[in-house]
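TICKET: design request
STATUS: open
ATTACHED STRUCTURE:
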């Protein structure tokens, strides 16, 4: 038997993430990949799994604690003496290490003590376990750099990051090109360094086999370091994603600035420290909104001591709740909202849906009105592309999207979440039925991946199960419209001769009046209602 310390893995660059659930306790037996703890950052929640099977000896963290990369989570008793003495070698890592040229010095001691200049080769450090594309070379041969200066900028499907220089010196050779795929351990630059500041490749964090097999580093099941969606795109930031280096992100975290609303002046809209400082200066002048309680010159709600009126309880809002509040506040202040209401007759649609129940059971799905509504919305959005667009940050262009990704608001114990169903126009009713149930369940269990909540072009919010005849949903910017669905009811409808019972579905369409005018919304509503009233029109 051997006791191993299980440490927190790379958390996607996040620091001081909150432990929201401890999944095991002392004495528990766990298998490899079983969840140990669940942590939550301001971007997403993620599970940290066990790296191997064993018995939990001691849990060293508690719910509510802050966790950073490298912190010890628990002690695990595992089988086999070899686990305690030698970590298994990773062939891929060894191959990478063999590719790294040895420093051009006689010994490591000479590299750290000699005052003479030496030329050394530096590899790419640990970048979170993934490969990444080189999108920018920040230096050229002959450049003098200081320790910490950016050498290259990498971009993966999780984040963009700058690789800093490990020492001061002069660039002698660049061993990588823009557009190359980079990974930890590959040669990066050759640099002439002087004296005791000389560093070998060992000074840079690299994905080597564990030196102490008793301290295991594991990978989380979900890493949420995705590019953050931004409120405003610019010509330098055409994709609507945040590009910022580690130092800028750290500065923003320490000050409490949301990089998603900071304009970037660097290449590809990359955010510099000067951009953050400028944003703060403007915010102090009430030019921007950063919180959900005030801003833009609006007087704040006065602080009231409610305890003077009776007993009160103070309960901290979850991070998800706070993010939702800020987003809704920002949307309400920036978007001139207009809401249109209508009741649509879905009597025939409901009759058609009832005929599909047995067929749906054979397919293993449950048919609700939602898949039909999604399919009708996709058709209407393609026929009226302005409803599927976004306003460009310059205020002079519309960004039309040639895809239909529809978000559906889901009420969860942690707060409101909006998973996105992609390519709704290309999926069948049964496929949509299965996917909506799956995503809703993942949302309630807090197992949604960040990419499953991004890229929406339109949103549906349903309060049908709770009742009500209508409401005014807030547009989920940068989308330009959202559809609210209320409770179905049977109403008498005049057919020209008699009042007949009809199943009427109340709909509320809120839209951004900067992009969509009343006529646009009216035509969209009429088109949508015509499909819902007679679903055969979907084939036209």
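STATUS: resolved
RESOLUTION: sequence designed for all positions
ATTACHED SEQUENCE:
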């Amino acid at each position: 038997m051997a006791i191993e310390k299980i440490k927190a893995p790379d958390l996607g660059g996040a620091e001081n993430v909150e432990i929201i659930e401890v999944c095991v306790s002392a004495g528990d037996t766990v298998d490899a990949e079983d969840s140990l703890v669940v942590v939550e950052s301001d971007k997403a929640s993620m599970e940290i799994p066990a790296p191997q099977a064993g018995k939990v000896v001691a849990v060293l963290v508690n719910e509510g604690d802050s966790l950073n990369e490298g912190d010890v989570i628990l002690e695990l008793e595992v089988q086999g003496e070899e686990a305690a003495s030698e970590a298994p070698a990773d062939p891929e890592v060894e191959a990478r290490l063999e590719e790294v040229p040895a420093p051009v010095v006689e010994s490591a001691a000479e590299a750290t003590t000699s005052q003479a200049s030496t030329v050394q080769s530096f590899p790419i450090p640990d970048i979170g376990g993934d490969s990444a594309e080189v999108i920018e070379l920040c230096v050229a041969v002959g450049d003098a750099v200081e320790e910490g200066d950016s050498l290259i900028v990498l971009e993966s499907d999780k984040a963009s990051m700058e690789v800093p220089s490990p020492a001061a010196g002069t660039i002698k050779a660049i061993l990588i090109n823009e557009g190359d795929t980079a990974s930890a351990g590959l040669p990066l630059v050759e640099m002439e360094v002087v004296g005791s500041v000389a560093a070998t490749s060992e000074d840079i964090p690299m994905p080597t086999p564990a030196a102490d097999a008793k301290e295991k580093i594991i990978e989380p099941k979900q890493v949420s370091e995705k590019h953050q969606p931004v409120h405003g795109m610019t010509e330098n930031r055409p994709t609507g994603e945040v590009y910022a280096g580690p130092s800028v992100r750290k500065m923003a975290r320490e000050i409490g600035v949301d990089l998603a609303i900071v304009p970037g002046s660097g290449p590809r809209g990359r955010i510099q420290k000067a951009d953050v400082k400028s944003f703060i200066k403007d915010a102090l002048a009430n030019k921007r909104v950063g919180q959900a309680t005030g801003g833009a010159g609006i007087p704040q709600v006065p602080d009231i001591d409610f305890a003077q009126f009776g007993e009160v309880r103070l309960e901290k809002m979850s991070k998800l709740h706070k993010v939702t509040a800020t987003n809704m506040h920002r949307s309400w202040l920036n978007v001139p909202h207009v809401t249109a209401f209508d009741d649509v007759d879905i009597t025939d649609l409901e009759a058609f849906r009832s005929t599909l129940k047995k067929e749906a059971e054979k397919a293993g799905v449950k048919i609700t009105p939602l898949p039909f509504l999604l399919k009708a919305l996709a058709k209407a959005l393609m026929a009226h592309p302005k409803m599927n667009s976004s306003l460009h940050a310059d205020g002079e262009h519309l960004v039309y999207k040639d895809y239909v990704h529809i978000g559906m608001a889901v009420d969860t114990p942690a707060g409101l979440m909006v998973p996105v169903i992609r390519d709704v126009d290309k999926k069948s009713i049964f496929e949509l039925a299965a996917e909506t149930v799956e995503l809703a369940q993942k949302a309630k269990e807090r197992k949604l991946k960040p990419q499953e909540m991004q890229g929406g072009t339109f949103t549906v919010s349903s309060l049908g199960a709770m009742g009500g005849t209508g409401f005014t949903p807030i547009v989920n910017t940068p989308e330009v419209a959202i559809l609210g669905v209320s409770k179905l009811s049977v109403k008498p409808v005049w057919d020209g001769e008699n009042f007949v019972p009809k199943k009427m579905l109340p709909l509320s369409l809120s839209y951004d009046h900067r992009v969509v005018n009343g006529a646009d919304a009216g035509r969209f509503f009429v088109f949508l209602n015509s499909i819902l009233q007679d679903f055969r029109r979907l084939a036209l």
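CLOSING REMARK: The two ends are 69 Å apart (CA to CA). The first strand starts at residue 2 and ends at 7.
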